[in-house]
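call fold(seq) -> tokens
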Amino acid sequence: MKKKMYALLTLAACCFALLICTACGTEDNSIRVNTAKTYQTMEGFGASAAWWAQDVGGWTQTTDSGNEIRTEILELLYGENGIDLDIYRYNLGAGSKTEDNSYYSDPWRKTESFLLPDGTVDYSRDANAVWCMQKAVDLGVQNVVFFSNSAPDTMTINGKVHSDADENRVDYVNDEGSNVYFSKPNLDASQYQNFADYTLDAVEHFRANGIPVTAVSPINEPQWAWQGGQEGCHYEPDEVVALYKVFLSEMQNRGLTETTELSMFESGQPFGDTLKRYLDAIMDDKDLSAAMQGMDTHSYWGTAEQKEKTAKYLKLHYRKLPVRCTEWTEMQGGKDVTMDSALVLCNTMLEDLTILNAESWSYWIAVSAYDYRDGLIYVDREAHTYETTKRLYALGNFSKFVKPGAVRIGASVGKALPISAVAFDCGDTVAVIAVNNTETEKAFTMDFNSKAKFTDISVFVTDANHDLECVYTQPFAANVSYTVPAQSVTTFVFQKDAA
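ret:
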């Protein structure tokens, strides 16, 4: 069930062998790495624990290897022998499990809340999800984000975790000339302090119990209507500002700002006038603009051109505000475990890392039970079995080697080379990640525009035949040709000479 991650192949048997380059060192057929050209410093890679953790966390059955199923899944995601993710996004649920099924019936999308109807708090609830969070921390995660899709249902206007369908209104005309319909906000200003208290009480409780909650994100995709299907709450920009000011004031009163960041609203898209409306409203407030340490956005539907416009806008107006991409999945139906969806994932990551200069990048649900191109791992909810995907290992080509503190460096691809690449200075190593979307293998040279010296190189491949496997390790040599397989993501790890 669980595939071996590090199969070291002999050079004679390995189809990815290094070849001494005699005629292919032209500029147009190379990847040029410049360690002197630096960009963002990385905070890491992560994934969301919604909604799977509240079920999978209770899967204590053992596999043939003698391990609990839930342990194997968490180790694949957060363990050193898995893809070693750095960020765990815990969904602080709004309590939809206590509601009827009139608006949606999927039990996975109905969350627990620590808040009981009588106003008391019970932190023994949501035990399965809390187990998963604790296991991730035990495996080395040092950044846990608490995010909320809605305030608890006991605080909302309609007593539900979503807006009612008959509350639509036209809010404004967007930059494409279309009317944008939203529902009315479902959280009254009189409940802002209660929402902040509930959230920050939970933060303090879990921090006191060893969970490194480093960020709290109370607003998720405020621009959407959220009229059913899952928990969600619409806010207008002025309401976002008002709610954040309550959160910020309470965090300051508790001394939490020293350890826990107030994350900026998580925009549903990384582009467009809706993002600008919310961003400008927040940054126009003196207190919030001083407190916000980054702009969080989801990467859904954005094209490279649209992301470039956002990057230019940020550079012009908010040059010092870094970007975090906190959620993405392909948003396409049909289960897929192949390189097809894995390459879509990697291409999106490359855009976000190189165009938006994202300092962190997190996937949406890490585990899926749906006929959809979403999870890194698929599970059968009845049989309690799981299946890995190429998406899991492709994400690992980034997360396993580019750790917090790594700095993105210059990497340019010759015009004759139809692949994409990104590079990072990781301290003791330099990691170069190459994505080949074509149906044929590609050979190229790697040119370093620096005085860096290396002792050896290890190459890790995810393609149709390899799952983040080390296909060779050998002494580094200059002026050689590298080959990447068709439809693959390959990470080249160059070990620096410490001398």
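The mean pLDDT is 91.
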